[in-house]
Amino acid sequence: MKKAENIIVGISIGDLNGIGSEVILKTFEDVRMLELCTPVIFANVKILSFIKKNLNSEVALHGIDRLEQLVKGKINVLNVWREGVDINFGQNDENVGKYALKSFVAATSALKEGLIDVLVTAPINKYNIQSEDFKFPGHTDYLDKELEGNALMLMIQDNLRVGLITDHIPVNEVAKHLTEKLISKKIETINTTLKQDFGITKPKIAVLALNPHAGDNGVIGKEDDEIIRPTIKKIFDSGILVFGPYPADGFFGSAQYEKFDAVIATYHDQGLIPFKTLSFGTGVNYTAGLNKIRTSPDHGTAYEIAGKGLADYTSFKEAVYLAIDIYHSRNEYLELSKNPLKVKEKQLETKKGA
């Protein structure tokens, strides 16, 4: 296992007209971050130096042309492109979107090849990044195609973890996507993730209902009784501790979520509205279920404050911390899995600690 300071954190630059560069620079103004990891930003050192000057940031950037030139203890910037780029903070610019894509594709390639250990992505504009090569609703969908495994969006803040059965699809299409196969895959993915990436031996998972009042016995929709509930029972009977479906309206307000290691919502806003309300801007988006680790802040480009030095970098910093923590947890899990005796010893230690 690598020592903490040797973990290479790859960072895609995101939309250059947004707050991505600002939250990255602010995160690494704290020199203690360089004791935890070696960052490498996939961008262009001249462009980042221009943004740094605009923000009156004093962080020192180390430009490199190949990952082999990476230096520990420095903020490395890999020159993914050479040409200049016009930066107009707060503007939706198709040309800037091309460079966000160049950065993300290069970082993903390095992650696949094992040249970086984890990936943290700054926010993109999902509209101006679209091209012939990138026809995806966001980072997660592209990573699902490029990496091994089944991607699941998992929002995290301390012990609050909210996953999604469906994510970037229109609300009027959610019901037809809720099949036994998809629900089972998502529950199994999150169960494995909780074990290997968070060190939870017997995870407890809650699933939210699709319809108000969980359908009220079919009066307000039949999906909960006919699809979700039987699927949950089948998975529970197989040995996974999954419960529900719970009516979504009171689940978070009554703090029921505190009884579970993760909550799975049936669609995007059902999970993300309560999550972002409770996480107070410190949440992290983790792409669970893949063979590589990727995290991101839980906010967007925030054009309205871009270039003004007003961006809160807490979520991005937490994304870096989480990526490092998961890297260690997953390596420990894989190590223990090779030796069943060590697994037993760890379980006994956990019981004693309890």
Share in β-strands: 15-25%
Can you write the helix and strand succession as a string?
Answer: EHHEHEEHEHEEHHEHEHEHEEHH
Shape: globular
Number of strands: 12
Sheet/helix structural class = alpha/beta
Which regions contain 5 or more consecutive residues with pLDDT less than 50?
Answer: none
Helix content: 40-55%
Number of helices: 12
Mean pLDDT: 92
Cα-to-Cα separation, first versus last residue: 27 Å
Q: Please summarize the sheet with the most strands.
A: 12 strands, mixed
Question: Can you list the strand order of the major beta sheet?
Answer: 3-4-2-1-5-12-11-6-7-10-8-9
Query: Radius of gyration from the CA trace?
Result: 21 Å
Could you provide a short overview of the structure?
This protein has 354 residues and is α/β, with parallel strands linked by helices.
How does this model look, in words?
The protein is an alpha/beta fold and 354 residues long. Helix content is 40%, strand content 18%. The chain has helices at residues 20-27, 33-36, 45-54, 94-112, 139-146, 174-177, 180-198, 223-237, 248-251, 268-279, 314-338, 340-353; strands at 8-12, 38-43, 61-64, 75-79, 118-121, 149-157, 160-164, 204-208, 241-246, 262-265, 284-290, 293-297. A twelve-stranded mixed sheet has the order 3-4-2-1-5-12-11-6-7-10-8-9, with helices on both faces. The chain is globular and about 60 Å long. The two termini are 27 Å apart.
